[in-house]
Amino acid sequence: MQKNDLVTVAIEDIGVGGEGIGKVDGYTLFIKDAIIGDVVEAKIVKAKKNYGYARLMNIVTPSENRVEKPACPMARRCGGCQIQEMKYGAQLAFKEGKVRGNLERIGEVPTELLDKVMQPIVGMEEPFHYRNKAQFPIGTDKEGHIITGFYAGRTHSIIPNTDCALGVAVNQKILEIILHFMENNHISAYDEEKHKGLVRHVLIRYGFKTDEIMVCLVINGEKLPHAEKLVDKLCKIPGMTSITISVNKAKTNVIMGNEIKLLWGQTYITDYIGNVKYQISPLSFYQVNPVQTEKLYGLALDYADLNGNETVWDLYCGIGTISLFLAQKAKFVRGVEIVPAAIENAKENAKLNGLENTEFFVGKAEEVLPREYKKNGVYADVIVVDPPRKGCDETLLETMVEMNPDRIVYVSCDSATLARDLKYLCERGYELRKVCPVDQFGMTVHVETVVLLSQQKPDDFLNQL
Ligand code: SAH
Q1: pTM of the model
Q2: What is the b/e burial string over 157-176, where b = at least 16 CB atoms within 10 angstroms of the residue's CB?
Q3: pLDDT in tens, 54-77
Q4: Which of 288, 297, 317, 337 to mutate to test the pocket of ligand 1 (most atoms within 8 A of CB)?
């Protein structure tokens, strides 16, 4: 097989990045945008010894799981969505299979046990327009017009699109006002390579429960000229609550600057997950799909099975979303998080909701928990973890096992590291009780999973004899 060869391939599998996988004479090809069940014509773009990458040129026979027309015309070029051409039901089946496959292969969970503990994936009622946050880069096209959109996969070239199918409808109106304002007032877009020009990004946030809207322009300067003209237009949009600028003069990939200046309204919007209220500023971390987050954390709460007497640890607690959810039902909740600003938010949110039975620690979970356990003799009835993709540090798992909580609830955004960590815990006295995948990010390959582990009781051993 050589570069530029044209081949016809039946797609039989899907890779971790959502790409279609098929074979030609035993040679494996990875083809972006092709889905299981398609027969496609593809052109080889990179040929390695045993496998290669090809570009989808033509669909010969479409899969029964292929949608007739993707919701977004930019879906193939944009780096945001990977599997928009797949029907939503097939996306869910793919995600469920991915979690199950990782638990089987990496976690070595026996098939019979998986059949018993796997719950059906929790999908979205509306798999589009679910994101409450969008950060649009601003740039200039070849003709010199100001544009905004999203980056093409693995690049920083902007594909013009003000109507992302994952974002809320009002984004388009806001972006168009900003683009017109910039053109009419000769305000330049930032040029990453030259480190020149003013407007870098537009951050938009929307409170799904409150309908409050935030707009923040990230600029390479201290001041936005004629800001009053922009404010005058934006503030007429129903729900507009916060208009700010963020100063970011650094030559960096980091989007937001640290300084926020108020242009109109207030510096934050308010939103709810369940009954818990949050004040969200341009710099705060907040779950981007609040509808599914409520379901995900609701499951975590359900698995924690609290009756009001428990002491709980929430490790990798972020802004304390899970901690506050749990604090409504537990005796006391302690959260640990590495980012100091997130812990500030967590404390403010606890206060805002009058949840005084909480305490938050800044630091690495793998350092704070052993220290508090060994030095201060803290304990836990239930431990909840929600680590980043790399999963839990082994020192942390070791301490958790030593602390011997009745239940461990593991919330994961990467089922491969989840499987690795479950294997460790299951070899040391814990038993897998429930596994439930939750789709937080339709049209992408990501999937969240909530798992309940509990201590293997002597009774269980007896039952097994
Ligand atoms: N449940 C949280 C989100 C968890 S995302 C919420 O609702 O906000 C994972 C979090 O782990 C991130 O906030 C990240 O900053 C934090 N983190 C990463 N490594 C860490 C470590 N070693 N110790 C503690 N927190 C860590």
Answers
A1: 0.91
A2: ebbebbebbbbbebbeebbe
A3: 999 999 999 999 999 999 998 888
A4: 337
